Amino acid sequence: xxxxxxxxxxxxxxxxxxxxxxxxxxxxxxxxxxxxxxxxxxxxxxxxxxxxxxxxxxxxxxxxxxxxxxxxxxxxxxxxxxxxxxxxxxxxxxxxxxxxxxxxxxxxxxxxxxxxxxxxxxxxxxxxxxxxxxxxxxxxxxxxxxxxxxxxxxxxxxxxxxxxxxxxxxxxxxxxxxxxxxxxxxxxxxxxxxxxxxxxxxxxxxxxxxxxxxxxxxxxxxxxxxxxxxxxxxxxxxxxxxxxxxxxxxxxxxxxxxxxxxxxxxxxxxxxxxxxxxxxxxxxxxxxxxxxxxxxxxxxxxxxxxxxxxxxxxxxxxxxxxxxxxxxxxx
Length: 331
Hints:
The chain is an alpha+beta fold. Helices cover 54% and strands 15% of the residues.
């Protein structure tokens, strides 16, 4: 019995012809009855032993053999379809995470592993320059050891690398070792007292910034105006940053601690909490309180209230000693 190529149901013509063949017992092979080939295809008629006539086949036999086979195939296809749907759902999630959800000129990447993979991919594709800002102090040895081979590979093929850390990174040994390697191969690294959030700029055509406070989402931006604005903002901060020369802690302290203390004073005057100030300058609260104790000792403040008074007085005297300056434009 051959498997039919049609939809499986009987046409009215084939049904009528079957009834005629069944009633007459057979029909000649040369018959032109409508639907005869449909009946043969479905297995409801078959050749007689002498090959000259079509004889009817019991429909129950066809149902048992063919319909049962179809149901088995249908069940297998249903199982396969369910498994494929499950697998494709997982793959769709992974693809969306790696490629990001496109919304206009902003692509959102979800999940730390997907963000890391995306940054690695676009970094490898860079041809001219990669700009990074890494606030929050030093980075772990594990992260830096993973990042170093790619950085050296990019520098070897002429891609310019510029990185901004906060001053506190100068006291982190893994970060200092990483900077030594990168600078030795042509990379440029500087530090600031304060900077905005994490930032990647690839060839001045793609910007990657955190998409939420926990940095579990990243936004990849290709809008020309936004990329140009953030690139300019980075350049301005780069100009006022200090070159990162890895050195002993005592040397680093003389280079950057005065800047850190000025920043702490300014933020205290603005009324920020201790935890907020520690985060802004990229240090732990314990390290922040060490800096705060030095500032209190420097100013001779015995209490937090007295420190606030002395800081306000210092700011007032500084501002009072400055002359008003009007530029040529009259602003």
